[in-house]
Design goal:
Blueprint: E1 5-8, E2 16-21, E3 29-30, E4 58-61, E5 66-69, E6 72-73, H1 74-80, H2 83-92, H3 98-110, H4 116-122, H5 131-141, H6 155-181, H7 194-203, H8 214-226, H9 234-243, H10 249-260, H11 268-279, H12 285-293, H13 314-329, H14 336-350, H15 352-356, H16 363-373, H17 381-402
Antiparallel strand pairs: 1-2, 2-3, 4-5, 5-6
Helix pairs in contact: 2-8, 2-17, 3-6, 5-6, 5-10, 6-7, 6-17, 7-8, 8-13, 8-16, 8-17, 9-10, 9-17, 10-17, 11-16, 13-16
This protein binds carboxymethyl coenzyme *A (CMC).
Length: 429
């Protein structure tokens, strides 16, 4: 209950008092949960004005371009922290001491292998399956392999499931790639750190020692870190909604992966590269800009705009720096595709349409470019997003399960037929 109230006046009804709550940051929220007992619902397609839960994990102020994990700004984490430390922060709420960090990274490292039978499970997929299709299936199927961490009411089970998911996602991601190109799976090498190990499993082979440039594994780590969490987006909401029914964590994360796959969400980094390839030459950029502005053309500039950030995407700022570093390390500044990306970025930032609608390059614009430069195939981009985001999904799932929650059940504004009687074929037009 709150002393702060809003009053809703609905014609023909007595005024309804609604509690107003204040968070530690962000706008006040009006608690509309009492409306249903008055025979009313709210209507909010796309949930743009709806807070679905209380959370202490991540805060975003889209107008200020601010993203905080447990209070820490994303640019500070990107500069001083690493992915595993950020995982710890998201899961436990505080930065770890050195001992806690060593213990946590040791646990994650020792969970990187997958059950040996999962290797045979992969053989059931078509060779040309999209790696995201494989990930939806394999991650959901982890619940068939790890029965000892499925009891969601047991804190220990929840913890082990979290460690397993964070540790095994890079292994499964790399396996889905190796499978698609017909190369043998590469076992994790626990002497390498999280990001380096992923690149080793992606690009190594059993016949020779793989050498990963530290600058590239640092860039990979940063990509994981910058994707680690983003509060109640479509995939995280899918994880929470699935978890609210009591589903096991592996099934919940599979739901998140499915939601992430779409081009308006995690699929955007893949769509960015496809778009750059379609543009093909700097001389075609103007045509594509015109198409993006044409209301009758469904084409949109992929990697531009964001539902929440209407100023700039703070992750994109850091990712842009990483992008410059990677292109320099790889000597790819003059690659034609990347030159198109640079020109497109410049034009869109100066164009009245994009400025007025506050459409800035988002994190996926730059992550797509970096991943391409690292030699990662385009259809793996969203898999990498999913790998980094797993910790965010798990942190939100854990926060929900550890507190009070109810099964998620949105309502609707029904505009279909009123009740009518069934007709035989002979009476139908
Ligand atoms: N290119 C051209 N016009 C655009 C674009 C774009 N990329 N994005 C939005 N608009 C226009 C849109 O047509 C609309 O115009 P009008 O007001 O004249 O109808 C206006 O800007 C507002 O767009 P909206 O669709 O109402 O905005 P939204 O908040 O619902 O959508 C978005 C956000 C990210 C889905 C959208 O900007 C988009 O489709 N961007 C391209 C895909 C993309 O890069 N997605 C990755 C998002 S970041 C990764 C993540 O967090 O998942």
């Amino acid at each position: 209950m709150s002393d702060n109230k809003a009053t809703l006046n609905v014609p023909g009804r007595d005024p309804i008092d609604l509690d107003i709550y204040s968070g530690t940051l962000g706008p006040d929220v009006v608690d509309v949960s009492a409306l249903t007992s008055q025979g009313l619902f709210t209507y909010d397609p796309g949930f743009v004005s709806t807070g679905s839960c209380e959370s202490k994990i991540t805060f975003i102020d889209g107008n200020k371009g601010q993203l905080l994990h447990r209070g820490y700004p994303i640019d500070q984490l990107a500069e001083h922290s690493n992915y595993l430390e950020t995982c710890y922060l998201l899961l436990y709420g505080e930065l770890p001491t050195r001992d806690q960090y060593n213990e946590f990274s040791g646990i994650i490292t020792r969970h990187t292998m997958v059950h040996e039978q999962i290797r045979t499970f992969f053989q059931g997929f078509r060779r040309d399956a999209h790696p995201m299709a494989i990930m939806c299936g394999v991650v959901g199927a982890l619940s068939a392999f790890y029965h000892d961490s499925l009891d969601i009411s047991d804190e220990e089970h929840r913890k082990i499931a979290a460690f397993r998911l964070i540790a095994k996602m890079p292994t499964l991601a790399a396996m889905s790639y190796k499978f698609s190109i017909g190369q043998p799976f590469v076992y994790p090498d626990n002497s390498r750190d999280y990001a380096e190990n992923f690149l080793h499993m992606m690009f190594g082979n059993p016949c020779e020692e793989s050498k990963i440039d530290p600058a590239l594994s640092k860039a990979m780590d940063r990509i994981f870190l910058l994707h680690a969490d983003h509060e109640q987006n479509a995939s995280t909401s899918a994880v929470r909604l699935t978890g609210s029914s009591g589903a096991n964590p592996f099934a919940c994360i599979a739901a998140g992966i499915a939601a992430l796959w779409g081009p308006a969400h995690g699929g955007a980094n893949e769509a960015v590269l496809e778009m750059l390839e379609e543009i093909g030459d700097e001389s075609n950029i103007d045509t594509f800009i015109d198409r993006a502005k044409d209301k009758d053309d469904p084409f949109r500039l992929m990697g531009f705009g964001h539902r929440v950030y209407k100023n700039f995407d703070p992750r994109a700022k850091v990712m842009r720096e990483s992008c410059d570093e990677v292109l320099e390390v790889l000597g790819m500044e003059d690659d034609p595709l990347f030159r198109i990306a640079r020109r497109l970025e410049k034009i869109a930032l100066e164009d009245e349409y994009f400025i007025e609608k506050k459409l800035y390059p988002n994190v996926d614009f730059y992550s797509g470019i970096i991943l391409k430069a690292l030699g990662i195939p385009v259809n793996m981009f969203t898999v990498i997003f999913a790998t980094g985001r797993t910790v965010g999904w798990i942190a939100h799932w854990h926060e929900m399960i550890s507190g009070e929650y109810r099964i998620g059940r949105p309502r609707q504004l029904y505009t279909g037929s009123v009740q009518r009687d069934y007709k035989d074929f002979s009476k139908r037009k």
